[in-house]
């Protein structure tokens, strides 16, 4: 077999695997939510969590000395892992809110943008960005916050959320919880109904979720 043949064969196998995962996503209603009769079980979630965990990797002393950085980028490099992640997040939202759904998914700059819009589409919700200061045009509101490796500012456009809209905040990682707290404050300032927070994983030991009281907090991979 030539190199070209084996590359083509590998691509075909990967395409088949992706199609299989995508087919499993079909059991959902018109709004994009999974139907209760579909196969959304805890064991299915446990299986996809294993696949996702295998795609994570760590870098010591990044971006500054003393930080053990968890890199989520391989999840998006592999289309099967990517589809699995989206499936798992969709299931997680169904578990968080069995009889409800968000109007708006808010994703945090920048890694919350990698999956927030796709998840919003799956849920039949809109997407709004929380961005680092100076990136959004027009009238904005601002919040200063402290995260695991520094201080920063988040902004939202004033028309990013309509008063009373139900909002789910999503991000890749919760460490100290500073970023998520600031995002939740911005949502509430705009009159949004903050439903909860969803993360792919947490940095253990920093007690980030303790900052996020009064709303449901869901973390796909509890220990990393
Ligand atoms: O819980 P915390 O201590 O606030 O830390 C978590 C935040 O830190 C990272 O973002 P970062 O600010 O590094 O931005 P990036 O996504 O652009 O890399 C991560 O994506 C979270 O948003
Ligand atoms: N340890 C960490 N790894 C990756 N992203 C982070 N954001 C905050 N802390 C982090």
UniProtKB/TrEMBL annotation:
<comment type="function">
    <text>Catalyzes a salvage reaction resulting in the formation of AMP, that is energically less costly than de novo synthesis.</text>
</comment>
<feature type="region of interest" description="Disordered">
    <location>
        <begin position="1"/>
        <end position="40"/>
    </location>
</feature>
<dbReference type="Pfam" id="PF00156">
    <property type="entry name" value="Pribosyltran"/>
</dbReference>
<feature type="domain" description="Phosphoribosyltransferase">
    <location>
        <begin position="94"/>
        <end position="197"/>
    </location>
</feature>
<keyword id="KW-0808">Transferase</keyword>
<dbReference type="InterPro" id="IPR005764">
    <property type="entry name" value="Ade_phspho_trans"/>
</dbReference>
<dbReference type="InterPro" id="IPR029057">
    <property type="entry name" value="PRTase-like"/>
</dbReference>
<dbReference type="GO" id="GO:0044209">
    <property type="term" value="P:AMP salvage"/>
</dbReference>
<feature type="compositionally biased region" description="Low complexity">
    <location>
        <begin position="8"/>
        <end position="23"/>
    </location>
</feature>
<dbReference type="GO" id="GO:0005737">
    <property type="term" value="C:cytoplasm"/>
</dbReference>
<keyword id="KW-0328">Glycosyltransferase</keyword>
<dbReference type="GO" id="GO:0003999">
    <property type="term" value="F:adenine phosphoribosyltransferase activity"/>
</dbReference>
<feature type="compositionally biased region" description="Polar residues">
    <location>
        <begin position="24"/>
        <end position="34"/>
    </location>
</feature>
<comment type="subunit">
    <text>Homodimer.</text>
</comment>
<dbReference type="GO" id="GO:0006166">
    <property type="term" value="P:purine ribonucleoside salvage"/>
</dbReference>
<comment type="similarity">
    <text>Belongs to the purine/pyrimidine phosphoribosyltransferase family.</text>
</comment>
<dbReference type="InterPro" id="IPR000836">
    <property type="entry name" value="PRTase_dom"/>
</dbReference>
<protein>
    <recommendedName>
        <fullName>adenine phosphoribosyltransferase</fullName>
        <ecNumber>2.4.2.7</ecNumber>
    </recommendedName>
</protein>
<comment type="pathway">
    <text>Purine metabolism; AMP biosynthesis via salvage pathway; AMP from adenine: step 1/1.</text>
</comment>
<keyword id="KW-0660">Purine salvage</keyword>
<dbReference type="GO" id="GO:0016208">
    <property type="term" value="F:AMP binding"/>
</dbReference>
<dbReference type="GO" id="GO:0002055">
    <property type="term" value="F:adenine binding"/>
</dbReference>
<dbReference type="InterPro" id="IPR050054">
    <property type="entry name" value="UPRTase/APRTase"/>
</dbReference>
<keyword id="KW-0963">Cytoplasm</keyword>
<dbReference type="GO" id="GO:0006168">
    <property type="term" value="P:adenine salvage"/>
</dbReference>
